[in-house]
Amino acid sequence: MRLHLHLLSDSTGETLENIAKAALAQYDDVETIRHFWPMVRTEAHLERILQEIAQNPGLVIFTLVNSTARATLEARCRKLGLAAVAPLDAVNDALSGMLGQQAKARPGRQHVLDEAYFDRVDAIQFTMAHDDGIGWENWEEADIVLAGVSRSSKTPTSIYLANRGFKTANIPIVVESPPPDTLYRLKNPLVVGLTTSSERLIQVRRNRLLSLNQAPETAYVDHDAVTREVAFARRMFADNGWPVIDVTRRSIEETAAAIIALVQERRGDEGSGAADDE
Predict the structure, then answer these.
(1) How far apart are CA 18 and CA 15, in angstroms?
(2) Which residues have C-beta within 8 Å of that of residue 182, sequence separation ≥ 6?
(3) pLDDT tens-digit readout, 235-255
(4) Distances (CA, A) of 138 to 23, 102, 193
(5) 97 pLDDT band (50/70/90 cuts)?
(6) Is the CB of residue 130 less than 8 Å from the CB of residue 159?
(7) First to last CA, the chain
(8) Quick one: CA dihedral 270, 272, 276, 278, positive or negative?
(9) Contact (Cβ atoms closer than 8 angstroms) between residue 138 and residue 130
(10) The whole model's pTM is what?
(11) What DSSP character marks residue 25?
(12) What is the pLDDT of residues 102-114, one digit of tens each?
């Protein structure tokens, strides 16, 4: 099945892309032709888009706060017999009812340069500077430190967490090269161990070697060696009481969500402890 998907936003369109991606993941064998229209803020721009929609009819998903633009889009889609969906309407209606106020019709308000924005920038910069064991002297400044054997998704998970505002460092666990003692004395960051099955790890590593045009059969992918490596890391995690997440069947997003839950749980426990002391 082929589907033309039109995404219209008066801002960056990031929200729409995530919504569409999540929804389409529930359907198999759909060839999606995506038409992405960000920063739609003039009547002339909208008119050009409507002409494109007429030529390539499909599903229209939009986040437009301007009432005139919305009315024009919805009316034209009805005339074409097309569904036009505003996925944030139900959420805004519920919030308006509970808060007793109307939503501010200002596009891109979630992207304002506020303190949270600059915190994310700082987190990304910190994370990029503390990848793969670099800058261990500053690990105490991190929110999260990820530990795991090579190719256990430490770097992409770190970057994802940084985009969520968490300063994240990561360290490879290598049998022949123990990590610095600093790792065992950290107080501020949550240290999380990432592990995976030996079979999955071998597959990922072999693909990595092939992509680099290197010999695919080395100790790096030897089954017994990899099994010992994974067991060594697991023992280290257990000996230090670090929470462990098995990434074998998890996406980066799922792994990051589990880590964020651990951080929030830890912060909640610390907050409860402070309250009890009072």
Answers:
(1) 5
(2) 136, 137, 139, 140
(3) 999 999 999 999 999 999 999
(4) 40, 45, 19
(5) confident
(6) no
(7) 62
(8) positive
(9) yes
(10) 0.68
(11) T
(12) 766 555 555 455 6
